[in-house]
Structure formats: structure tokens, C-alpha cells
Specification:
By secondary structure, this protein is mainly α.
Length: 409
């Protein structure tokens, strides 16, 4: 029974969900709530703020390529404590800092600890600990993202005028080190082994072998999928990073806009659970061609319609794409390439994801400084999702078949 699976594995599934929730404090949808205050205090234009975000996030992607392998070498609980300690220090730095130069370092820290390592660790743990229900485990871990998306931006927007944006970061530091660190230490006190694989053999890829990331990057498949990884991250980041700018040009308040964030989160949760079940049964590759299309439709809603309902629709459609991606990517890399080197393999994919989230704010911010209408930029993003989706219909017909042994698990 599926319900029995959730009950028997609640503690390990909870590790993934809590880690992804903690990543929220380094995600764009949280940091961008303070964009207007940061630009005002540090005297930055949209392009300069986007440039800082791009430099910091690209740097975090580069470091993640090196550090991601530690998810294969260090126990989940121990590595999580190390990341949370660093994350806490960065949050305190956001509270104290007054230097624009140090701001780059702090944004790097937020992106590396949050979007990068702690998120990478949560999903990698699910991919290694589970096999037969891997996509479902990844989808459950994704609930942490959704809960953070639903709660934290609105809480931050409401708290900012009361205690100030800097004090919000002090609260974040306390919550991370005094609240979540002990909880994760307890839940991750021992590792789980997949019941359908021995510790020595683990779970091989579709061709029956365990791929190294060096071998993976030499194959055509990885590079055929990278445009989708970058596009989803690029567009999904931009819609949140530029939320304050969108609100200013559409005359929507920050609090009113964050009211729509739960719609994004609910759509993500519902779709990720459905997609996780579908991916376990038929294979995550079947969902690839459809993953970006709702995101493209959502971007087409940004700008043409004055009512804030269009923002709700845009975020809901973005959530549909995010829900599919949560179920697809966490399971796809493990199924296609095996789990022995999954930390290193996923780190490469995660680095490209971070690249997408890095260049989005820089490119769109510079375009805004140059007078390019954001609604026009959004239409170009919509077109890109359609092109990539069409290419993926070809990709999925050229994948190695799912082995009978794998499909029977």
C-alpha cells in the first residue's frame, strides 16, 4: 500500500522535505521580497542589482560543481549541519552588512547554501535512499519547496514594515540554527538503504551500469536536456526576481502579490504528486515534452492584463511546470545514470540550473535599464519553451528503453 510506504518512511521523507524548506531562505522568491529595499539602501539600478545577483549565483554554481560531490562522501545529517551553520552566518551577515561589495559575497552565500547545497542534498538523499518509489520520494521532498513558497514570502512581506528587512534575516538565522538544525539531526541520524537494491550494487542506470559524471557529459543526452534545465530555472527565477518591478509597473502592492504565492505552491504540490505517480509507473521521460509548456503559458499572462488575477494565473501555471520538474529531474538522473555517483551527476545538472537562475536576473535587469518592456521579454520566454518542448518529443523517442528488471521494481 502506498499509504504504508509513506508511514514506514516518514522520517527519511521528512529529511528531504525539511531540507528543501530550509532552502527557501536562499531562493529567489524569498530574497526578491527585499529587492526594493536592497536597491534603495545600496543605491542600485535594476541592472546593477540583477548583475550582482548574476555574479553571485554564477559563482555559487561554479563552487557547487566542486562541492556537490560531498553529498556522495559525507553522511546526510553531518553535511546538513555544516551547511546550516554556514547558512546561519550568511543570514546574520545580511542583517549587519552595509557594503555593496560584501553584498555580492552574501548573496553568493545565500544562493550557494540555499538554492545550491541544501537543496541538492535533500533531493540527492531521496534519489539514493529510494528506488522503486523514487519519483514519489522526490515529490514528497518537493513539498518543502512548496510550503516555503506558500508561507515565507508573505510572512516576510508582512514582517518587513514592522521589524525592518534586516531584522527579518536575523530571525532567519535563529530559525535555521535553533529550529531546523536539531530537527534534521534527529531525523537523519541513520541512513536508509533501498529495499530493492543491495548497498554494494545500489541502482544502476537504464543500460545496467553506473555512469560517472565524466562519462555523462560526453554523451548527447545530457546536452540535449540542458536547455530545458536552464530555461525552467531562468524563467522560474525571473518571474519571482522581477516581482517587485512587475508590481510597480502594474500598480500592484507587494503584500497583494505575495497573496498569490500559495496558488503557485498548491499547484506545485498537487501536480508533483500526480506527476510522481505517473513517473514511477511509466518513466519520468514521458513527462519531459510537457514540462515547460505551462510555464510558457504563464509568462504570456505577464503584462497584457491589468487585473491582479493575471498574476494568480501566471503563478499557478508556473507551479504546474515546477511540480512536473520536481517529479521528473530527481528521478530521471538516477534512473538514466544510476545512483552510485548520483551526487556528482546531479551536481552538474544543479550547476546548470543555478546558471539559468543566475543569468535570468542579470539579462532581464539590464534589459529593463535599456528600456525593454518586460511584457515583451516574457513573450520571448514563452516562445523558447515551445521550441524546447518540441525538441523533447524527439529526445524521448531516442532514449534507451527501460529494462524489464527496472520496470518490475
Amino acid at each position: 500500500m502506498i499509504s504504508r510506504f509513506y508511514l514506514d518512511n516518514a522520517r527519511w521523507l521528512g529529511v528531504g522535505a525539511v531540507l528543501t524548506f530550509c532552502s527557501s531562505f536562499g531562493q529567489t522568491y524569498f530574497i526578491s521580497i527585499f529587492a526594493d529595499r536592497i536597491m534603495e539602501e545600496y543605491r542600485l539600478t535594476d541592472g546593477e542589482w540583477g548583475g550582482i545577483y548574476t555574479i553571485a549565483t554564477l559563482s555559487s554554481a561554479a563552487v557547487l560543481l566542486w562541492a556537490g560531490k560531498f553529498a556522495d562522501e559525507i553522511r546526510v545529517g553531518r553535511l546538513a549541519m555544516m551547511i546550516l551553520a554556514a547558512f546561519c552566518c550568511v543570514a546574520i551577515g545580511m542583517n549587519l552588512n552595509n557594503s555593496p561589495w560584501l553584498l555580492v559575497v552574501l548573496i553568493f552565500g545565500l544562493r550557494f547554501c540555499g538554492q545550491g547545497m541544501i537543496s541538492h542534498l535533500g533531493i540527492t538523499a531521496m534519489a539514493r535512499w529510494f528506488r522503486a518509489h523514487r519519483a514519489r520520494a522526490v515529490a514528497i521532498a518537493g513539498l518543502g519547496y512548496s510550503l516555503g513558497e506558500a508561507m515565507l514570502p508573505r510572512l516576510a512581506a508582512m514582517a518587513e514594515p514592522i521589524i525592518g528587512w534586516r531584522s527579518v534575516w536575523l530571525v532567519v538565522a535563529v530559525v535555521l540554527i535553533a529550529g531546523f538544525a536539531p530537527l534534521i539531526a534527529w531525523m537523519a541520524r541513520d541512513e536508509r538503504e533501498p529495499k530493492s537494491a543491495t548497498p554494494a550494487e545500489q541502482s544502476p542506470g537504464r543500460d545496467g551500469t553506473h555512469w560517472t559524471r565524466a562519462r555523462m557529459v560526453k554523451g548527447w543526452l545530457f546536452w540535449a536536456l540542458i536547455p530545458a534545465v536552464i530555461a525552467h530555472s531562468f524563467i522560474g527565477t525571473v518571474i519571482f526576481f522581477q516581482a517587485v518591478h512587475i508590481g510597480q509597473i502594474m500598480d500592484w502592492s507587494k503584500v497583494d502579490m505575495t497573496t498569490a504565492y500559495p496558488a503557485y505552491a498548491v499547484a506545485t504540490v498537487i501536480v508533483s504528486l500526480i506527476a510522481g505517480h505517473f513517473a514511477d509507473k511509466f518513466g519520468p521521460d514521458r513527462l519531459l515534452p510537457f514540462m515547460l509548456l505551462p510555464l510558457g503559458a504563464g509568462m504570456a499572462m505577464v503584462g497584457p492584463f491589468p487585473g491582479i488575477w493575471s498574476w494568480w494565473v501566471a503563478l499557478t501555471l508556473t507551479g504546474v511546470s515546477t511540480g512536473i520538474s520536481h517529479a521528473v529531474w530527481g528521478a530521471f538522473w538516477a534512473e538514466m545514470y544510476g545512483t552510485r555517483h548520483i551526487g556528482g551527476i546531479k551536481a552538474v545538472a544543479s550547476a546548470f540550473m543555478v546558471v539559468g537562475s543566475a543569468i535570468g536576473p542579470g539579462i532581464t535587469g539590464l534589459a529593463i535599464d535599456l528600456g525593454v518592456n518586460f511584457a515583451g521579454q516574457a513573450l520571448w520566454m514563452t516562445a523558447a519553451t515551445v521550441v524546447i518542448a518540441l525538441a523533447h518529443f524527439w529526445v524521448v523517442t531516442h532514449l534507451p528503453p527501460r529494462s524489464a528488471e527496472y520496470a518490475a521494481l
